[in-house]
Every structure is written in C-alpha cells, then in structure tokens.
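FORM 7B - TANDEM STRUCTURE REPORT

SECTION 1: FIRST PROTEIN
SEQUENCE AND TOKENS:
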Amino acid sequence: MNMEFDEGAFKDLVTENGERIFSISFDEGSMANNGTVFINKYGDSFWAYDYESNFGGPYESLKAALEELQLEYTPSLSLEVSTDLSPTQLLKLVKFHAKKGDLITINDEYWQFVGKNKLEPYEDPDDEDDDSEPED
C-alpha cells in the first residue's frame, strides 16, 4: 500500500482542528493591504497560516513561530490581535511601527501607544458610562 502525504488535507486538519493560539488582523483601507495571520497549535507543534494560502511550521512554540514570521505592522484603520500574550510580551515578538497615540485592539480591548514599545489601556474620553436615567 503506497500512501502519499496530502499537504492540502494536512493544512485543513491544522486550520480546522487546531487550537487557535494567536491571530492578528489588519485593514489599511484597501483590498491590497488587509488580511489575517493565524497561529494554531496542533498536537505539540505550532503552525502559521493566512488566507493567501501561506502555511508554515512546525514551530516548537508560539514565540518561535512569531520570531520566524518577523511580523511588522503599522497601526492602521484596524489592527486586532487575539492572544494570551500580555501586551508587553506581544511588543517583544511583533514589531509595530507606531507613533504616540496610535491605537491597537488586543482581545477586544483598546490599547494606546504611549511611547516606543509601550502600551496603556485606552479609555475614550467621549465614552460616558453613565447609568443614570435621562431626566424628563
């Protein structure tokens, strides 16, 4: 019996059944400058892929995958990250070309660049959490 490795089937297995460990989505307002990079854990290895059919791995850790990918981003109209990494860890593994005041979304929370490689939680000054009833 001759069994050949089916790379497409393996990619499907990793992308559909692997545990999503990391994703970063970016949208700079044009079709040419948007996309998502994912890193899934499948078995004891980490695998990176995107919607452009790029696929890489195995990596021994999330850190190894991110270091190999050498991701670089400029905060744009939309930059969303989903990860268990802390913002400090994220800044060590992904290069952001950001200026003071730029925003990034990490796990559905807004963060603002306040200096080189430094983030702080962002609270919109126009966002009022006023639970009081309007007066008649």
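SECTION 2: SECOND PROTEIN
SEQUENCE AND TOKENS:
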Amino acid sequence: MKKTILILTVLLTISLESFSQYTPGVRYLHLVNDSIVYGTEISLEKKLFSRSVLIDNHKFKQSEVKFYVQYSQIHANLRHLSPFKTNYFARCISKGKLNLFISTTTSYNMETGSIRTSTDYFYNKNFEEVKKLHYKNLKVDLKDNPECLIILNKSKKLTTWTKIALIGGASLIVVPFLNIIFQPMDGKLDKVAIACAPVGVVSILISNPLRYKTKKNNKKAFDVYNN
C-alpha cells in the first residue's frame, strides 16, 4: 500500500513539474481538484449561458478547470475574479518566483466608433489561484522585499487619489440634479450648483490616468520582486 501511494505521488509530481516547465507539444488541463487530464487538442466552447473546455472528446465545465496548457502556454481561469467578463482565461507571459498572467479585453464605443483595448494583469505562485495585480494583494505577497514596498507605497497614494477623483467627481455631477429637485421657491437654479457638473466630469476623467499610473507602478513592483 505504501509503495502504491509513493508511486502515485511521484507520478503526480512529474505531471506538475512538466506543467510548470511548459513541456513543448503537451496539452492538458489542470483541474480544480489538482488532477491532470492529457490530450491532443484543447478548445473552448462558448454558449449563451455556459462555457466549457474540451480536450479531445472530453468536455469539462469551465468552473472545473483551474489551468489549461496548449502550445507551451499556460492559461489561468479567471472565473473567481471576473465571472461576467467575456474573456475568462488569462495567458501566462512570464514565470519566476511569481507567475505573471495577462488578459486583454476589447470594447466598442458606439458613440465615437472607436475600439478600446483594456489590459489587466494577474499573478500567482506555483499552482495557486491567480490574483489581480493590485496594491492590496501585492503588499502581502511582496512584503519581504523593502524595495518593492517603497514602490507600492506610491501605488497606495495613487489609489487614494483615484478614489477621491472618482467619488468626488460623481458627487459633483449629482449636485445640479439635487438642486433642480430641491430648488428654491423662486425657481432660480444655483449657478454654483450647475457649474459642479463639468467639474465633476473633469475629475472623473483625471481618474483614468491616475488608474493607469497605479497599474504601471504595481507592475514595476512585481518586476522588481521577480528579478
């Protein structure tokens, strides 16, 4: 019995090691229960209310798949982070002490006719579930690196200012509407209240570059830790 358990442990270890090393030509699923399913071809099946991962003739619910490996690339399931987005998997772009994953989503603006691409970063360690590359996560996982903490301190300040810009801007936009609802008896609108709306819009627009700088700074801290 002990020999059987030892053999199974060795086989599982070999499977996991091959997974982490991106074995060329190997395709397999790493399920949530940490079992490995090998095959020759992997595809994603998208239906209106469900998504599945197919490996050869075997179908698995997306919720059952933790990672899948195809063409020497690891893809991590984002089901626990973004259940309502169309892109449910993130692709691993670098491995190290922490593994970095990227997910790109594209949206179409009907008013301007422009296409907007948004890039989000995620990371994990070994075979843990991926996390968002956010300040709250990084300050815990990078806490043993003083240089990273200094960089993240800037992210903390940027995050605070982003929240102020968003919340303040939204509040200012609401002011004119409140003034209309609770306008004085003479029916005159407060000019200051009306002027709050454009200021609020500008404040919200300012939050976008602040959010971009925060994301860039978080990535910098991650790269320093991994090098």
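SECTION 3: OBSERVATIONS ON SECOND PROTEIN
The chain has four helices and eleven strands.
Residues 1 and 8 are 11 Å apart (CA to CA).

SECTION 4: SIGNATURE
Preparer initials: ____
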